C-alpha cells in the first residue's frame, strides 16, 4: 500500500454528461460517487445548463439521477442541448478523456457496450495511454458486440450471466458488482388500498416487453382480474413517443382493457411505485438496459411483487420474483391474475423481495466492493 495520503484522482468516463438524460450508466456513476466520498472524481457535466437557467437549452425527457458532490472533485463541460449521448457528445467525451486521463490515477469508464464500443476499445492505448482502466458495463446492446471488442482493463459486470458472456468473448479479468438501491429512498410500504394498479416500465423498444405486458394484462382481465394498467415508458433520444403510445392504447382497448394509462418519463417514481400493486416487466431482450433494470430493484425494495420473463440476467433474484418464458403472454397473464387474487402470496413475495434487495443490492455492499477494486488497482489505502 502506498503511503501517499492524498485522495485518488479518478476520471469517471461516460459517453455524455454525467448530469444528462437519465439512464443506467448515469445512475451507476452517481452511485459510485456517492459511495466513495473519499475519492477525487472528475466528471463530465452538461453545458449549457439544464432547464431553469437563462442559458438552458431544450428540456430533456426527465431529470438526471441525483449528482452528489465529491470531496475534492471537478467537472468538465460537454456541449449538449438535451443531455443525451449523441455522436457529438461521445466525441467530446472521448477527446476530453484523452487529455485528462494522463493526469489521473485511474480511469473508471461506465459505458454500455454499444455499436461504437468495438472501435473505441481498439483505440484504448492511444486515447487513454498507460493509465489503468476499470470498466463498468451497465449493459450490452447486442450479443455479438463483446467478441468484436477489446477489454479496456479490469471489467465489472452487473450479473454473473453477463460476466460469463464477457469472459467467453475474451475479456480476461471480469468481476461482478451488483447495482445498488438507496434503501432510505425506497422504504418498504404496505399494500395499497383500492383498485390494484399494475405498473409496466421500460422504453418504447421492440421486444422491450410493453406489447407483451398489454397482451398479458388482457388475458388476466378475461380471467376475471380487475385492475388499472399504467405503462410508464420512456423514449430513446430522437424517438417520437406519440406513435408507440397510441399503438399501445389501441392494443389495450382491443384486448378489452378499459382502464389504461400510457405515461412518459415519471419525475416522482417513488410515489408511482407506492401506488402500484405489482410490477410487470416481460422483455424478450434487454437491449442495453441494466442486467436487472432499476425499476425492478425499486419495486422489490418498496415491497411490490414483480413478474418477469425468465431471462438469465434475472437469476440473481432467485425466488423473489415470478417468472414466465419470454413471449409466453398466456403464462404471464395467468400469473398476474393469480397474484391479484392471492393477498397472502402477495405479502410473502413483498417480504421476500425486500429481503433480497437488503442482502444483495444494498449501498454498503456496493460501495465496499468498488472500494476494494480501487485499492487493488491503485494500491490505495
UniProtKB/TrEMBL annotation:
GO terms for molecular function: glycosyltransferase activity. Signal peptide: none annotated. Residues 47-59 have a biased composition (Low complexity). Keywords: Glycosyltransferase, Transferase. Residues 47-73 are annotated as: Disordered. This is D-inositol 3-phosphate glycosyltransferase.
